[in-house]
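Design review, sub-item: ligand-bound model
Attendees: FS, YL, KQ
YL presented the inputs for the manganese (II) ion complex:
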Amino acid sequence: MQQYLLFSPEVAAARAAGKAIVALESTIISHGMPYPQNVQMAREVEQIIRDGGAVPATIAIIGGKICIGLSDEQLELLGTSPDAMKVSRRDLPFVLSQSKLGATTVAATMICAELAGISVFVTGGIGGVHRGAETSFDISADLQELAQTSVAVVCAGVKSILDIGLTLEYLETHGVPVVSVGQRGFPAFFTRESGFNADFQLDTPADQAGFIRTKWALGLKGGVVVSNPVPASEAMPKEEIDAITLQALGEADDQGVTGKNVTPFLLARIKALTEGRSLVTNIALVKNNARCGAALAVAMLTA
Ligand code: PSU
Ligand code: MN
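KQ shared the predicted structure:
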């Protein structure tokens, strides 16, 4: 597997020095946000991680390699290429063997991070069980990955475009612990509360790192969801986002949007329907997660 990995000079140096490294996904850049905010967000998030004492490793598939750590030009390429593929677990062999440009989802980024020996990964929101999954069968591969791949994923919970209750049930069935930071409630991405609780509240990076180390030391493979609520000053009004989510879901249904296109469609529609305000919140919560993830990665070194 190592033959497919290509480390950037910054990440290679961090590995050699035994520094804390934080993985970042690239679907959020190519399919989650519009240009140029996507590339600007990616650069700022990387800097927040550096300022937090860790080294950022944004992951993507370029030129037949799993790139761990990207140059400015590579970030720009991902942010501007309309043909960048959204790559989940099933797509990895195709993009690699065909030397396509691939942006990795939470699932694929977890796989690549584990291969690269990186145990902490920061994103915005994870995929989950979609509303109506009992007929569509639409359950994100992110959940299966959390069940089997040993990487801690720092996120702001899951969006209310998903069925949050069923997502938590699925994670419980697969033995994936959901930890929350600073509150007991499990956050709903744009808002701080979802109406559901996380399994465990662990506020300090040392406690989070101790929990994660203990899970893996027991031989309990798989991920941990570290859910970090959006700062109150940046959260969206719940009534507004709920109404807009319903409208976007209706439009997806009417237009027959299915499969991997569902999540990008909903994100783009919510952004348009909120006149860009959802994007401001989205960027703020990713940055907030970057601070949390950098501190966690540093704490993992001594846990
Ligand atoms: N949630 C977001 N922004 C995103 C995604 C999810 O707020 O960009 C992306 C992530 O890459 C996640 C993927 O892994 O969508 C899930 O897609 P799907 O629902 O098709 O599994
Ligand atoms: Mn899906």
